[in-house]
Design brief:
nine-stranded mixed β-sheet, globular, alpha/beta, Rossmann fold
Length: 197
């Protein structure tokens, strides 16, 4: 069972649909519910959805990143920015406003991109970005855009993955592969850690 935190974005239910196509049961909570209403340790993994606001205002999303120590997390767009923000990254205006535009993404071989070509096309829909300046040492950049923005990151010691682009968009290549990678590695991680949050 997976959980999706809905940061009030129209793409959230695309993520839900993709997860169900991939055979997963999904619970959905909006980001304004109390943290206590989410049984974090009952989920194989948690997806942090895109959203229209800034990560500083993503409410329970921030709490989950801090509290769900042994639960795999996958942040999409705002969800990735929230991961960067919680671990000390600066959130800045993107070099270009990218609202519904496709771009070439280049990744560096992380497990989240298994079976995905090193360069692929994905939809970007954001005006904010995680800055590469003073990038937190605990995080790792996993992909960049054609204009050098961070397009994916991970935590070096905790299972925190994030992508800035939208794998759930029909115009993004390999989106289903990326979600499938998160699902597969989440099951392996939870089994090996026998988790207790």
């Amino acid at each position: 069972m997976f959980c999706i935190i809905d940061n009030y974005d129209s793409f959230t239910y695309n993520l839900v649909e993709y997860m169900r196509i991939l055979g997963q049961d999904v619970d959905v909570f909006t980001n304004d519910v109390p943290l206590e209403s989410i049984n974090i340790k009952s989920y194989t993994g948690i997806i942090l959805s895109p959203g229209p606001s800034s990560p500083q205002n993503s409410k329970v999303t921030l709490s989950i990143i801090q509290k769900a120590i042994h639960t795999p997390l996958f942040g999409v767009c705002l969800g990735m920015q929230a991961i960067g923000y919680v671990f000390g990254g600066a959130i800045v205006h993107a070099k270009k406003i990218m609202h519904g535009k496709t771009d070439t993404i280049e990744h560096f071989g992380s497990t989240m991109f298994n079976h995905v070509p090193q360069r692929f096309t994905a939809v970007r829909y954001h005006s904010l970005a995680v800055s590469q300046d003073n990038f937190p040492e605990c995080l790792q950049i996993e992909a960049v855009s054609s204009d050098g923005e961070i397009m994916a990151l991970s935590h070096k010691d905790r299972f925190r993955w994030g992508v800035q682009s939208h794998p759930e968009s029909y115009a993004s290549e390999y989106g289903m592969h990326i979600l499938k990678n998160f699902i597969g590695v989440s099951y392996e991680y939870r089994k090996s850690h026998n988790t207790h949050n």
